[in-house]
Amino acid sequence: MDFTRREMMVIAAAREIKDGETVITGTYWPILASLLAKKLHAPHSVLVFEGGIICNWAPTRTPLIAHDPAMLSCSVLCGDLFDTLGSVVHGGWADVGVLSASSVDKYGNINTTCIGDYLKPEVRLPGSGGASDIGASAKRLVIILEQTRGRFPEKVDFITTPGFLHGSNSRERAGLRHGGPCAVVTDLGVFRFSPVSKEMYLHSYHPGVHIEEIKANVGWQLKISPRLNETAPPTTQEIKVLREEIDPAGMYLRDARLDGLLTSEDKSL
Amino acid sequence: MSTKVMNMQQAIDQFVQDGDTVFLGGLVAFEPYAAAHEIIRQRKKNLVVSKSAGMLILDLLIGAGCVRKVVTSYIWNPAYKPAHAFRRAVEQGIPHRIELEEYSFFTLGLAYFAGALDLPFVATKSLLGTDILQKQLSMSEKIKVLESPFTGELATVIAPLKHDVGIIHVQRADEEGNAQAWGPLAADRWGIASCSRIIVTAEEIVPSEVIRKDPQRTILPGFRVNAVVEEPWSSHPDYVPGFYDRDWRYFAFYHEATKTLEGFSRYLEEWIYGVKSRKEYLIKIGERRLKELRAKPWQSLPVDYGHYPIF
Fold first, then answer.
1. Binary contact (B246, A120; C-beta < 8 A)
2. Same domain membership, residue B227 and residue B242
């Protein structure tokens, strides 16, 4: 069965969510991963979106953004940021946060602010949104991004969202209560973090991906797990649900949301 | 007729002055595009614009040269593409350099909350260890790290944010300005309450009796409000729950159209300076598209607050 690297990435990320968990979902790839988990193996999971939405039912169309109108007809609570980022996340009830990232470093810190100097950057990125809050207070964090060497620097230029900061117990010393990344899932493999040093290591390589390609796309000398194995390939069910129910129009998987025209002759949602 | 009811051009002219600190509500839902377009049309200058996530509204205001400083947590095109005018300003100083005060979404919401309630400051765990705290000199007067006087644990403390003028867009309001909204409210309740002067724009102005039949929906009481504007489709290309969908194709169009400086200038000429009002803008969008975007009903069951007999 054929599958794309993007599909493998979303499926591998979905597997990180366990049934019954309260999930704080950032925008972009996390939306697909969270919805896929809910439809497959985590039907009792509760999805929380930072602007005030808590949902325990699947939406009828692909949400194109975190507060897509589609979420309104499947939510149990519609309030404001204090209900979600406040009570659920800061209050310590978010079992897992799922975030995308512009770049991630050796200790799982995420940069979505700038490449280069903050005051005169080479590249200006969007900013934190709720990501920094989620990184601070979710009990664990899953990070999803498409991997290039440039997006895996040894040390990010700007720590927008805290991972393990400078490694070891630097999170605790900075005053954070709990949390930290448990997985970085890319289109090449799955990475985890050493329990003591908090340094990222390769946990599994996706089917069809060579370890040399992964190493070439990491900006430091990547540690490899002694128990390294291949990520379990997508099952027929995982691919079917992803393609037919989660993103049937390829809005994310094929970037169909960018086929922008002002008329409607073409695809509908 | 109440003296608060006026059109968008009058409200912006009277209540938004050059140099003001302006709070704009909305986060995907309730985005006040119509108000932002009018601010640009009236060529307001040197504004400090505060919005929980700037999205394309801040991109437009920055690119149009209206802004001296932005206070926000995020500026990006919701098609998951960069906000080009924002990037040009920060990377190249085009049209001019802007000051940035960046928070995370929760800490910005807390700053609005503190401003609304006039609290001395509020405390949180967010931002500890991050460069939002450590590398932004502009934030050193807004966010500090202290030890809790109760437990000794480290906490970030956040100064209150207040604004000269605020604008929110809601589904309905009465002529007094009692504003009702349903949908993801983001930080709007608090951001708007932190403002000295307030403009409420609404899809429709309704009789006060409608407000009084469901007071739980009110996010802002009328006694705070200076101007009420009835302006349907104010949030296009984004959405208002129950009224219209997101025009998702428009974001891809905006991404392509504004990639270059010339393209951005052409966009402003065509969609903002070249139309006199939101009504003219809607003619450009076209009735066919508006018809596609209009929301079909998904109504709740009515609630009953109870009718209580006289003694």
1. no
2. yes
CA A225 to chain centre: 22
Same domain, B101 and B28: yes
* Residue B1 pLDDT: 56
Alpha helix stretches (DSSP H) within B169-277 = 188-193, 208-212, 248-257, 261-268
Q: Minimal CA–CA distance to B161: which of B15, B21, B57?
A: B21
Residue B138 pLDDT level (bands cut at 50, 70, 90): confident
Structure ipTM over 0.95, yes or no: yes
Per-residue pLDDT of B10-57, as tens digits, reads 999 999 999 999 999 999 999 999 999 999 999 999 999 999 999 999
- What CATH number is given to the structural domain containing B25? 3.40.1080.10
Q: What is the pLDDT of residues B220-231, one digit of tens each?
A: 999 999 999 999
Residues B259 and B150 in one domain: no
Does the active-site annotation cover A245? Answer: no
A24: which DSSP letter? E
Structure tokens at B138: 């502009």
**For residue A263, is it within any domain?**
no
pLDDT at residue B136, rounded to an integer: 86
Report the amino acid identity of residue B102: E
**Looking at residue A177, which CATH number applies to its domain?**
3.40.1080.10
Both B247 and B168 in a single domain? Answer: yes
Range of the domain at B152: 120-158
Q: Smallest Cα–Cα separation from B25: which of B226, B222, B217, B194?
A: B194
Residues on chain B touching A66 (C-beta within 8 angstroms):
28
Number of domains in chain A: 1
Say if the Cβ atoms of A90 and B255 lie within 8 Å: no
Q: Spell out, as residue ranges, where chain A has pLDDT lower than 70.
A: 260-269
**Residue from the list B86, B186, B289 with its beta carbon closest to the beta carbon of A51:** B186
Instruction: With respect to residue B234, please indicate whether it lies within any of the assigned structural domains.
Output: yes
